[in-house]
Amino acid sequence: MSQLTVPSAVGKLTIVQTGEAITSLDWGGHSTDETPLLQEAARQLSAYFDGRLTKFDLPLEVEGSDFQRDICDAISAIPYGETLTYGDIAATLNVPAQAVGQGCGGNPIPVLIPCHRVLAANGLGGFSGRGGVEAKVALLKLEGAASLLI
């Protein structure tokens, strides 16, 4: 396992590589591993936060249950600057909206798997990254989805 910590608009982010895939993204840290994949992930994150990248192209591996992977796949399909509700995803997967919320909270690779694009039916919903809802709002504003917040 290798890790690289990079600065971002929502704080320091530590990208974790296991094998040939990104398996986690966490807030905080001080890691300085420099594998080619971690360097590419850092480059793409920088471009995303600078407004120059709207879709990540990295090998991601969600470690978890099949259900967790299904939730993350559904989240990954939400385009940049757009949102869905927990209920929208629940209807697609034929599961309760609450289960989708729990799956979003269990997303091991936030930002790269954009769980910030999933909203509650009547508000923002939660966000498991450091900074909570404020970080979610910052990410939505960055993507031009701020009109959804008014």
Topology of this structure?
Layout: E1 2-6, E2 13-18, E3 21-27, H1 36-49, H2 66-76, E4 84-85, H3 86-93, H4 97-105, E5 118-119, H5 132-142
Molecular structure report:
The chain has 150 residues and is an alpha+beta fold. The chain is built from five helices and five strands; from the N terminus they run βββααβααβα. The strands form two sheets. Strands 1-2-3 form a three-stranded antiparallel β-sheet, covered by helices on one side. A two-stranded parallel sheet has the order 4-5. A hairpin with a 2-residue loop joins β2 and β3. α3 packs across α4. The longest helix is centred in the first third of the chain and has 14 residues. The protein is globular. It starts with a strand and ends in an 8-residue tail after the last helix.
Widest sheet: strand ordering: 1-2-3
Mind summarizing the main beta sheet? 3 strands, antiparallel
Provide the structure class.
Answer: alpha+beta
How would you classify the quaternary structure?
single chain
Q: Classify the beta-strand content into a percent band.
A: 5-15%
Assign an overall shape: globular
| Unreliable stretches | none
Summed over residues and divided by their number, the pLDDT gives a mean of 92
Helix fraction, binned, reads 25-40%
Total beta strands: 5
CA radius of gyration is 15 Å
Quickly count the helices: 5
How many angstroms does the end-to-end distance come to? 42 Å
Q: What pattern of helices and strands is seen along the backbone?
A: EEEHHEHHEH
